[in-house]
Write a structure and sequence with these properties.
heterodimer, A: 111 residues, mainly beta, 6-stranded mixed sheet, 0% helix, B: 115 residues, 4-stranded antiparallel sheet
Amino acid sequence: KQEVTQIPAALSVPEGENLVLNCSFTDSAIYNLQWFRQDPGKGLTSLLLIQSSQREQTSGRLNASLDKSSGRSTLYIAASQPGDSATYLCRYGGSQGNLIFGKGTKLSVKP
Amino acid sequence: NAGVTQTPKFRILKIGQSMTLQCTQDMNHNYMYWYRQDPGMGLKLIYYSVGAGITDKGEVPNGYNVSRSTTEDFPLRLELAAPSQTSVYFCASQRSVGPSSYEQYFGPGTRLTVT
């Protein structure tokens, strides 16, 4: 059974710090991986989508990478800001059409 | 485009009551999904649809039913509400899946309490 794990479950950093969020998956038959942001009491907002043929995607201060062989994706946030505080979820998209979410990393950026 | 819309935003049900959660997307997406999110448990797939007239069970379908008569709408039905169905429900849509799939878009959610 495919499992998607996000470590750490929670992270607190001071403003301005660069940080990395991790997402690991057990099945390498991946088609894509998507990173989302969820604010408290809100829905999910898409941040980045990486296809299996890509190694990384960038949007502003965010950079997501994908390493199929090691079963890992990372989300790098540069120069973190208090507005980045949210829960970040990764979603695995498999070759069987299966979409599986991790449980998320709750990020708190302190001013 | 409004994207994915859900109604209602909040609802309180008594045990045994029924209700329908509405979901509509205006992006002409083929794939639509219903998830529930419980605290600390991530998102669990309830049902999904790959197009009008086609639905299939996800990971936690018991106690729910769906229909997909049009591309735009994908309602979720709770027939006999139970306290275990207290959760936040999210509807999502996606144009396609596979090697060149697009992003998945989510609605704002429906917070349901069953007492």
